[in-house]
Amino acid sequence: MIQIDNLSKNYGTVQAVDSISFSLNDGEIVGFLGANGAGKSTTLKMITGYLSPTSGNVHIGNQNIIDDCIDIQKMIGYLPELNPLYSEMKVHEYLHFHASIRGIIGDEFTKSLKRVVNECGLQGVVHRTIGNCSKGYKQRIGLAAAMIHDPKILILDEPVTGLDPNQIVEIRGLIKKLGKKKLVLMSSHILQEIQATVDRIIIIDNGKIVADGTSEELISNAQGMTQLHLQVHEADENKIQNMKAVIPSINLKNISQEEDFFLLTVEYGNNSDPRKDIFKYAVDNSWTITEMTVTEKNLEDIFRNLTNQSTQGVEDE
């Protein structure tokens, strides 16, 4: 388990990460979301020991990132957003290079190479030059390099950036498979991908944690008001305006008239469901309802509501 305690990072007078705390459990796949400049990459770099925190600490077991940085880095596999590949090297040469840095040589390397080639699906490219591999395979190669020492923790910064839909599905399946064996923390700008891949979501905004939970929990907690869209024929605008007086639990948010019908947007709280009352009101006034659609919030709505889109420009992510 990873415990982040009051972690902060300042760049001069700008505070990129502001005293955040959260824990990550073994066997979890956790998505880390935030707008550009929110503090995502800075946080990931502090967890991996790439950056030193201004204050606070990261604990893994009985060790911490300040006093035991090298030991903690041995437990972590890190794939940064800019995948650091050497395009002129062959895949097996690149993985041998990473393994040798970590002291994995001889028979131990042979076993490690076989493991990551199988786990990352690199059988067809292991002897190919990296520069001749597709973007999807390059991400797999980066993952294999991060996993060559069989770490307990994987930290992935934007692992599907620049991939096409088919490649994204491939990497998603690989991450979900790895999550059965390891703690995985990943950031991504593709919200649908996060929702499809992770067990839990943490959202950071302006250096502070603003949400933490499953996607279902975040959507449920942020519902607030529900919107109902109606298409109504044979209606009278005065009667539409009077609907609020008859059904006090609703608010009329929008009325627009087309050639022979009205489009209405009605809003109401989660503790009420006025659809039966609206339908009865329509019948009483001889209206014909040809459409009644509830708009449900999704992760993108929650993200927009919780994050401030104006960034401070202190980091690239």
Structure write-up:
The chain is α/β, with parallel strands linked by helices and 317 residues long. 35% of the residues lie in helices and 30% in strands. It has eleven helices and 14 strands. The strands form three sheets. The chain has a six-stranded mixed sheet, sandwiched between helices. Strands 2-1-4-5 form a four-stranded antiparallel sheet, with helices on one face. Strands 12-13-11-14 form a four-stranded antiparallel sheet, covered by helices on one side. Helix 3 packs parallel to helix 5, helix 4 packs across helix 5 and helix 5 (135-147) runs parallel beside helix 6. The longest helix is centred in the middle third of the chain and has 15 residues, at 106-120. It is elongated, with a radius of gyration of 25 Å. The model is unreliable at 309-317 (pLDDT under 50).
Describe what is shown at a glance:
The chain is α/β, with parallel strands linked by helices and 317 residues long. Helix content is 35%, strand content 30%.
Q: Can you write the helix and strand succession as a string?
A: EEEHEEHEHHHEHEHEEHEHEEHEH
List unreliable stretches of 5+ residues. Answer: 309-317
Structural class by helix and strand composition: alpha/beta
Helical proportion, percent range: 25-40%
